[in-house]
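Hi support team,

I submitted a single chain yesterday and got back a structure, but I'm not sure I'm reading the token output correctly. Could someone confirm the output below corresponds to the sequence I sent? I've pasted both exactly as they appear in my results page.

Thanks,
R.
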Amino acid sequence: MNVSLASLVVPLVLATATAAVAATVTEEIVVVTAVGRVNINTAGVKELMTLEGVGRKVAEKVIEHRTAKGPFRKPADFRKVPGVGAEVWEKNRERIVVK
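Hi R., thanks for writing in. Yes, this is the structure output for that exact sequence:
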């Protein structure tokens, strides 16, 4: 009986450990993405909100701006969006790209 019990418990423990490792890897991928570059011509609200100082309202204004005026030509054009001041620009200038 002990051998049968062990043969049931060991796979269960391994499956649980595998799931835990997969969850950890997923979390790390999200963190890496969150501090990566943001293409302000294609980013959605959630991605724009990863920029420091950019909340939902400003993110929506970025999308409204590019919809109304066309794609941003250079990263510094981000400052033309209402609600994006010098401080927000300076905090994020290394992360903002246009493609």
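A quick pointer for reading it: The first helix runs from residue 2 to 34. Let us know if anything else looks off.

Best,
Support desk
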